[in-house]
Amino acid sequence: MPDRPIAISEAESRVMELLWRQSPQTSEEIVAALLQPTGWHEKTIRTLLSRLLGKGAVIADRDGRRYLYSPTLTREQWQSQESRSLLDRVFGGRLSPLLVHFSSHEKLSAKDVAELRKLLDAIEKKGR
To answer: What angle do CA 86, 24, 75 make, to 5 degrees?
Structure first.
């Protein structure tokens, strides 16, 4: 895992999602996969890839005359960074206000509630 959190924009996350699903990939493969669903220009996609490379979120390994791109940051590491950032920025670093917000503003399914109960039970057991 990188030493420091890597800030990834929403657009950059589309490139990362592609690489998390399958890597390594060439820039041509990345461009081809993102052109139609995003409507972005090839230059935009290559710029996003270059930014991710500069941030250390991806690496490029030479393979003959081309480069193969792979993520250095796992999806789980990114989710953890983003979750922590959201909690800190919006909910003062506390999880309970986040859960209160979602329980009062979003419809939680019976499955969601059961999963939360199971999680809380596991946390309680761990704390004993």
So the answer is: 20
CA atoms within 13 A on the CB side of 103: 10
Quick check: 49 pLDDT over 90?
yes
Residue 40, number of CB atoms within 10 A of its CB: 17
CA dist., res. 5 & res. 22, Å (int):
23
Q: Which two tokens stand for residue 67?
A: 């480069």
CA 49 to chain CA centroid, nearest Å: 15
- In this prediction, residue 128 has a pLDDT band, given cuts at 50, 70 and 90, of low
Residue 117 Cα to chain centre, angstroms: 26
What pTM was estimated for this model as a whole?
0.77
Say whether 56 sits in a helix, a strand or coil: coil
